Amino acid sequence: MSAAAVPGLALALAVGLTACSSASGSATGANAGAGSGHPVSGGTLSIDIASAPLCLDPQNNNSNGNTAVSRQLVDSLTDQDPATGAVHPWLASSFKVNADATQFTFTLRSGATFSDGAPVDAAAVKANFDSIVKLGAVDAVGSSYLTGYQSTRVVDSSTAVVTFAQPNAQFLQATSTAALGLLSPASLTGSPEDRCQGHGLAGSGPFVLKSSGGQEIRLDRRTGYAWGSSLWKHTGAAYLSEIDYKVVPEGSVRAGSLVSGQVDGIIGVQPQDEKLLAGGSVTELVRSTPGVDYNLTPNTTRPLLSDVNVRKAISDGINRQQIVSSLLSSHYKPATSILSSTTPYYSDLSADLAYAPGTARSLLDADGWKPGSDGIRTKGGVRLTVKLVYPGVDIPSRNVLQLVQQQLKAVGIDAQLDGLPLNQLAPAQNAGQYDLLWFGLTRSDPDILRTSYSVAAKNRAHLAAGNPLEQLLGKQAATVDRTQRQTLVTEAQKQLVDQAYAIPVYEQVQFAAFGSTVHGAALDGSAQPELFDTWISGSH
């Protein structure tokens, strides 16, 4: 298989990407301010973000907030069209996949360099993939994309052949993600901690890191950049001279600053602040993101959550439509599977996720859980209390989970919310210090299920080795036949929902907004802001 654009090794991609405007703003397609005059070079784009990235190294993080910044610093071998799911050239001018997807040949475009001057060549591709595999658990997302990796052979300076021990159907799409974005070989020698701080971090992207620390991150335009994605609208260097990210935790302050013209854009519009945007000329970019929906994942090794009836009762006791209608907005959808509806190979399991409080009570009754005087159930002197861990800085999630807490209390389950600081959340996740874990992950390939739930990867549900789901996740990653992969991915979604190994709640949404002087901003295939084509009216 070889092509300039490969259809994502997927059946179809119902993207759900919209660009709309408030007041006198205008937008067409997926671009902010598209068609608003001739692009000009220069200017600083000021953007407010909710929290400082914990890690600026795209190979060493799995947070959308982190990637929104680091995506601007690195290029990838390929790019993915958000409208079709097709994979297109970027640093690789062409690529070939053998019949069983065990070997991927990339021919690199000439002239690309990292910001430290090193060439983007086949040796750099090999150094990156070898390094990501070596990082292992530190870089669990990137290394999971390289499961079964055997080697990268340098044929010549412009040709790299990546070989896997078994078919790896998801790898081509993985090469479009920031997690497999390329860094200079010199950058790879730094410690993970130094790389996260941006020390010595040299990508080949259209922007370079100027400064970071505290509440501000500044990027400069890369001089001489001339190897952008084939999906981008212009060639040469980026239009913007600088991007200035400032950390503003309060969502209403971010929205107010945009409407008043104090900043040019905001990333992460909270549902309760959407109405504030109607007060100004603002262009909105909204996408239901592909990947794993926001969900509650039970730790099945915990005594209470090892019981499938308790897990099912939690799922049946959640009123997803009420959550979306009362706390979110029309941009959001109740979960109808563990995969969002914009993800390739998604299956509609809405009937299995219907609100059924009567069924929840019957399951708990049959299991011996009796309502106490306060309505919370007990069995054998044990109270049905579960610890629910979530990122404490995420106010919309906190609001949602408080309503989930009320809904579960109505069927006799006591959900205790534990909002952790971001620097404590990852260790708690990795150590399994939770009964229920609240999270969602973005990726436009169903292999995100393997990344999240395989025993060999994150295994967020703490499933035992050899479970039937593990076999399905492994087989779908090794299957290049589209019909067969659809069957396997559908069955994996059903098992996750039927066994309540994951309890989906609602689809994630990426929501960015820009002022009327900003044009050409877009969301890429992973729903990350793409700022290469962005320009500001009146800049010089």
UniProtKB/TrEMBL annotation:
Keyword presence, Aminoacyl-tRNA synthetase: no
Signal peptide: 1-19
UniProt cross-references to SUPFAM superfamilies, sorted A to Z: Periplasmic binding protein-like II
The keyword Ribonucleoprotein is assigned to this record: no
Pfam families in the cross-refs: SBP_bac_5 (PF00496)
Keyword terms: Signal
Solute-binding protein family domain mapped to chain residues: 87-451
Protein name: ABC transporter substrate-binding protein
